[in-house]
Amino acid sequence: RRAQLPNVRLAVADALAPPLAPGRRFDLVLVDAPCTGLGTLARRADLRWRVQETDAARLGVLAGRLLDAAAGAVEPGALLVYSTCTTEPEENEEVVARFLDRDARFRVVPPERPVPPGALGPDGLVRVLPEVHGCDGAFAACLRRIDG
């Protein structure tokens, strides 16, 4: 309401089983997955003691399940954007690679909006690194549904 976006509706629900009408599809679906948050380590010192060695792998599996659940809500030709605030490959590149292996309907495409200089890799994935960009670390993948 504050942003005055009349075409945005919020729902509190289990993202692994979205409460959508059968066949409901969208032009853009964002999966901002739960993650270790290690990209924010510079300003969140508590993560040094809270994050466990197995968290990245566990959260990577959950992120893959969230991508699988969200994929069905993406209109052919539209985008599924996956993002995290971590720099861990287990929660980022590996999640995207496994998702693409499971779902041939999607391809990585470069983002349509500008990203910080040097953040866009040759693979089309966005990696914002604290030591390079002077801000929190983050990751994003724009995945276009190509079937028709």
Describe this structure in words.
This protein has helices at 47-50, 55-71, 93-102, 130-133, and strands spanning 26-32, 74-84, 106-109, 126-128, 138-145. With 148 residues, the chain is an alpha+beta fold. It has one domain (26-145): Vaccinia Virus protein VP39 (Rossmann fold). Strands 1, 2, 3, 4 and 5 form a five-stranded mixed sheet that branches. Helix 2 (55-71) packs parallel to helix 3. The longest helix has 17 residues, at 55-71. The protein is globular. It starts with 25 loop residues before the first strand and ends with a strand. The relative contact order is 0.19.
Number of strands: 5
Distance between the termini: 34 Å
CATH level 1 name: Alpha Beta
CATH names the topology as Rossmann fold
What characterizes the major β-sheet? 5 strands, mixed
Residue fraction in strands: 15-25%
What oligomeric state do the depicted chains represent? single chain
What order do the helices and strands follow?
A: EHHEHEEHE
Low-confidence stretches: none
The total number of structural domains is 1
- The CATH architecture term is 3-Layer(aba) Sandwich
Helix content range? 10-25%
> Mean pLDDT, nearest integer?
93
CATH superfamily descriptor: Vaccinia Virus protein VP39
Which shape, going by the Cα principal axes?
globular
| Class of secondary structure makeup | alpha+beta
How many helices does DSSP assign?
4
Radius of gyration over C-alpha positions, nearest whole angstrom: 16 Å
